[in-house]
Specification:
Elements lengths: L1 E2 L4 E2 L4 E4 L6 E3 L1 E2 L3 E2 L4 E4 L2 E4 L8 E16 L13 E6 L9 E2 L3 E15 L4 E5 L4 H13 L8 E6 L2 E12 L4 E7 L6 E5 L4 E6 L10 E5 L21 E4 L5 E2 L3 E4 L2 E2 L3 E2 L6 E3 L1 E7 L46 E17 L7
Length: about 350
C-alpha cells in the first residue's frame, strides 16, 4: 500500500512512501498507529521517521545492496545436465546437488546484470569411426584378458607395429560380458581412443577448426527473467532473448577461453511495484541462429571426482581427459550482479507506558 501522512496501517504492512525516488520501507508494527513522517536521505540510505501514538514499534531503513554471483558449469550434475552450455541454477538451495547451487536467497531484486560470460574457444569433440587394425586387435586382446583388473589411470606397455607403446586408461565401463574402454597412447591426452569387445573402435579430438568466436552474437535464454528482447533468428519454443552477448568490443581472448563482457541489455531494472525474486534460473546458450550450443561425445562414465593434478597427472580426471563432462577447457562460467532492497534495523522506539 502507499503510505501518506496521518494514514493508519495494519500490523506487518509493507508500506511505500511515494516521492521522487520511490523509496521503499518495511516496518514491524505491533499494533495500529497513526503516522506522520519525513524523509531523511543520507549517504544513499533512506529513513522514514515515525511518530506513534504511544505503542511500541521498530523503525527500519532500506538499503540497495549489490551482490556478485559466479556460476560455474563444473558444479552441475552431469547425469541430469550433461551439456555445459545448458543448466539450471538453484538459489537458496541448501541440500540440492543436481545443478549449480547458490546458497544465498535473493528477493526484492531492483536490477540484475549479466556481468561476464566465459566460454571455451573450441567446444566440439570430433568423433572418427575407425577400422580395426592389427595394432588395435592386439590392444583389444590384452584388454579382453585383463579388463577386470584395470582401473582409470592405470597404464601398461604393449608391443605394436611401431614398437613398445604405453597405453593409459582414461575410463572403463564393464559388465559381466561386456567392456568399453577409453585410452590414450604414449601419454598424449589430445587424442583419445574408444574400444570395446565387439570391435567398436573410435577416436576423439577437440576440433580446433570450429570456434564460438565465428558467431557475431551469442544468445542467453533465461525464461525466469522477464525480457523484452527479440530476434529474427529466434527458434520456435523459446521465449524472448534475455541477453545478447556480442563477439566484439572489449572481449578478452586467451588460448582456451574467451571472456565476453559486451552484453545487451547492460542491466535489467524493475519497477518498485514489480520487484523480482530469484529462486531458479534455467540457462541456455545458443548461436546466432538460435541453435543450442552443445558439447557432444562426452563420456558419462568418466571420473567425476575432484583431483589434484599438481602432484601427479591423472589421465582420467577433469584436468586431462577431454571426454570428461567436467573437462576444464569445455566449461562455461556466468557472472551476475544483483541489486536488492534489504531492510536494516535503524533504531527501536519504545514507550514504557504505552497508551491503550
Amino acid at each position: 500500500m502507499e503510505f501518506f501522512l496521518n494514514q493508519v496501517a495494519d500490523v506487518g504492512t509493507r508500506v511505500t512512501w511515494t516521492e521522487k525516488r520511490h523509496s521503499r520501507f518495511l516496518f514491524e508494527i505491533r499494533d495500529l498507529f497513526e503516522f506522520k513522517g519525513e524523509i531523511n536521505n543520507s549517504w544513499g540510505m533512506y529513513a522514514l521517521y515515525i511518530h506513534s501514538n504511544g505503542r511500541t514499534m521498530k523503525e527500519f531503513i532500506e538499503r540497495l545492496v549489490q551482490y556478485g554471483v559466479n556460476v560455474d558449469s563444473t558444479d552441475r550434475d552431469v547425469i541430469a545436465y550433461p551439456n555445459p552450455f545448458a543448466f539450471k541454477i538453484i538459489f537458496n538451495g541448501s541440500g540440492q546437488n543436481v545443478q549449480p547451487v547458490v546458497q544465498k536467497k535473493f528477493k526484492d531484486i531492483k536490477y540484475l546484470k549479466l556481468e561476464t560470460l566465459t566460454i571455451p574457444n573450441n567446444y566440439t569433440i570430433a568423433k572418427t569411426v575407425m577400422t580395426m587394425t592389427a595394432d588395435s586387435t592386439l590392444i583389444q586382446t590384452y584388454l579382453n584378458a585383463n579388463y577386470s583388473n584395470l582401473s582409470p589411470n592405470d597404464s601398461f606397455s604393449i608391443t605394436l607395429s611401431t614398437g613398445s607403446t604405453n597405453i593409459t586408461i582414461c575410463s572403463i565401463n564393464t559388465s559381466s560380458i561386456y567392456w568399453i574402454i577409453n585410452y590414450i597412447i604414449n601419454n598424449n591426452p589430445a587424442l583419445v581412443y574408444e574400444l570395446d569387445n565387439t570391435n567398436k573402435f573410435n577416436s576423439y579430438v577437440i576440433d580446433s577448426n570450429k570456434k564460438l568466436e565465428d558467431y557475431p552474437l551469442l544468445y542467453v535464454y533465461i525464461p525466469e527473467i522477464q525480457s523484452n528482447n527479440f530476434t529474427t533468428g529466434q527458434k520456435s519454443g523459446k521465449d524472448s532473448v534475455t541477453f545478447f552477448v556480442r563477439q566484439c568490443g572489449t572481449n578478452k581472448a586467451q588460448n582456451t577461453y574467451t571472456l565476453l563482457n559486451n552484453v545487451y541489455p547492460s542491466m535489467i531494472f524493475y519497477k518498485d511495484s514489480k520487484l523480482q525474486n530469484a529462486t531458479k534460473y534455467s540457462v541456455t546458450i545458443t548461436d546466432t541462429s538460435g541453435n543450442d550450443i552443445k558439447v557432444d561425445n562426452l563420456d558419462v562414465n568418466a571420473n567425476l571426482s575432484a583431483c589434484d593434478c599438481q602432484a601427479s597427472i591423472d589421465y582420467s580426471c577433469r584436468c586431462t581427459y577431454i571426454r570428461n563432462p567436467l573437462y576444464i577447457k569445455l566449461q562455461v562460467v556466468v557472472q551476475f550482479k544483483f541489486g536488492t532492497f534489504e531492510d536494516d534495523l535503524y533504531k527501536e522506539v519504545l514507550n514504557l507506558n504505552p497508551a491503550r
